Each structure stands twice: as C-alpha cells, then as structure tokens.
Amino acid sequence: MKASVTTLDATTAGEVELADAIFGLEPRPDLIHRMVRYQLLKRMAGTHHAQDRSEVNVTGKKMYKQKGTGGARHGDKSVPQWRGGGKAHGPKPRSHAVDMPKKVRALALRHALSAKAKAGDIVVLDKAASSEGKTGALRQQFAKLSLDNALIIDGAELDVGFARAARNIPNIDLLPIQGINVYDILRRRKLVLTKAAVEALEARFK
C-alpha cells in the first residue's frame, strides 16, 4: 500500500510504499489486547506488602484464660480478627509479569500498526528535525498537520533539537524505532512515522 509523505511544513514530499506484511493485516483485537496486558503487567512494580500475623509487633501473651470467661477462646493478639493484628492473605512482593512468546509479541506489533493504517491514522513524515529547537515553532507546524495527539517514531537516533522542542507539547510522544510498542501506539490518536522509521520497520520484519 502507498502512503503520501509530508513535511513538517505540510507540503507533499512524494510517496512511500508500506509493506502489506506489516501495515496490511486484518487487525486482531484479541492479540492486541494480550500484548497491552503483557506490557502493563510487566511494568508493575509488585512491591506491595502487608504484614501477616508472624510479622506484626504485638505481645504473644494469651489474652485471657482458656475457660470460664463465657467468650470465645483466643490466643495472642496477632491474629487477623483483632485490631493491630496481621492481615490474612495480604499482598506480598512478587512479579506480575506473564509469559508471551517473542514471535507473538512481534505479530501483535504488526497488528497494531495495521489497525492504525486501516483507520487512516498513520502520517509519514519526510524527517523529524528542527534546527531551532523551539517548542512554539514546532507547535505551529503540528497545527498545520492537525497533530494534537500523536506518537512520533523516528529512526535509530533522534534529532536533538526536535526532541527538545517536542517534549514540552502535551499529548505528543517521541520515540526512536527501538522503543516502538503496542501500548504507546494505541494510547495516541495518530501514529507519525518518519521515512527512516518505515525503512527500519521493514528491515526488522524482513
């Protein structure tokens, strides 16, 4: 499939061929959902911790005698029934990550790219570079391109001036091609790929 290439000044800069094996698949929501869940679970810290009855600092003395009180039988105060006691089955530090094969992760990325292409939400830029490195100037250029909520993917190296200008604009994310991922693609309305990013993707999935 062909896509028009534009510049930051909203002028046409030719066309580029987008590989059907990457951008022309029929999107599978189930696969994309699995990948988003994989990413979100993997980034969870898993450092939550609650003290159980063996960890709380309370007396171990028996509360009152076993018989003759007319009440239930109780031992020490560290049990969950009492105020200040340990929590039963509370959270403990652990990894929330789930397994997902590498080939399935790569396929999910292609389906996410295809979903954006099918929705017409892919913009191909000639290059993402700014000589001035000024946020105001870049904001005006984005306004010409109707980019108010977008993920911009460049080649292996980001332009320093462009990155500095873009980082202060709300709802605009910038990543090198190594950082492209399904979650960030879906959380922004538009996906902006430079020609260098398109070439890198085709080389990656060749």
List the helices and strands and how they pair.
Elements: E1 2-6, E2 12-17, H1 20-23, H2 29-42, H3 102-118, E3 122-125, H4 135-144, E4 150-153, H5 160-166, E5 172-175, H6 182-187, E6 190-194, H7 195-204
Parallel strand pairs: 1-3, 3-6, 4-5, 4-6
Antiparallel strand pairs: 1-2
Brief overview, please?
The protein is an alpha/beta fold and 206 residues long.
Question: What descriptive keywords fit this protein?
Answer:
206 residues; alpha/beta; Ribosomal Protein L4, Chain: A; 6 strands
What does this structure look like?
With 206 residues, the chain is an alpha/beta fold. It has 2 domains: 2-44 and 97-204, Ribosomal protein L4/L1 (Ribosomal Protein L4, Chain: A, 3-Layer(aba) Sandwich); 47-95, no CATH class. Helices cover 33% and strands 14% of the residues. The chain has 7 helices and 6 strands; from the N terminus they run ββαααβαβαβαβα. A 6-stranded mixed sheet has the order 2-1-3-6-4-5. The chain starts with a strand and ends with a helix. The model has no long low-confidence stretch (mean pLDDT 95).
